[in-house]
Structure formats: structure tokens, C-alpha cells
Design brief:
Shape: flat
Order of helices and strands: HHHH
Number of strands: 0
Radius of gyration: 19 Å
Distance between the termini: 45 Å
Strand content: under 5%
Structural class: mainly alpha
Largest sheet: none
Length: about 90
């Protein structure tokens, strides 16, 4: 991927849930005496992430879309196949 694509995926890529899971694992193991402080820091960080990424989503997507439209970027324009749908089988 080109630089702007890496930045776009890096900024808007998945995050948050893994941080919550990791802090729960550490706190539940009792490895740290500062568990409540760590929980507060992670909650604050994830909340700030939600606000900042939400506030910048429209502008970021618009700017990246204009960049892709102006470039010869075949990979970014390829059609995406439909995702497989889980079918319940009678049994």
C-alpha cells in the first residue's frame, strides 16, 4: 500500500476492544497493584479514541477518497465480493 493508504488504515483500523481485553487479563491475573488506575487509563484512552476517530471519520474518508480518485490505484478500486452468508442446514 502507498503511504496515504497506510496512514488511513492505521488511523481508522480496528482498535479499542483489544485494549479492553488486555487490561482485563492483566487486572484479573492480579499481576499489578495498580489495577484500578490501569483500568481508568484504558477507559479514558478508548473513550478519547472513539471521540477523535468519530469526529475525523467524515473528513478522513472524504480526503482519502479524493486521493484514491486522483491516483492510478488499481488495488483500491477493485470490487469487493459479497461476504459469505451463514446458511442454516436442516438436519
Amino acid at each position: 500500500l502507498r503511504g496515504p493508504s497506510v496512514v488511513f488504515v492505521g488511523w481508522f483500523g480496528p482498535r479499542g476492544l483489544a485494549s479492553i481485553l488486555f487490561v482485563l487479563l492483566v487486572v484479573e491475573s492480579g499481576a499489578l497493584a495498580t489495577g484500578p488506575l490501569l483500568e481508568s487509563v484504558v477507559v479514558l484512552t478508548v473513550t478519547m479514541s472513539i471521540v477523535l476517530h468519530g469526529a475525523s471519520a467524515y473528513a478522513g474518508a472524504t480526503r482519502y477518497g479524493a486521493y484514491v480518485a486522483a491516483q492510478d490505484m488499481e488495488a483500491e478500486r477493485m470490487p469487493v465480493d459479497e461476504m459469505a452468508v451463514r446458511i442454516r442446514h436442516r438436519g
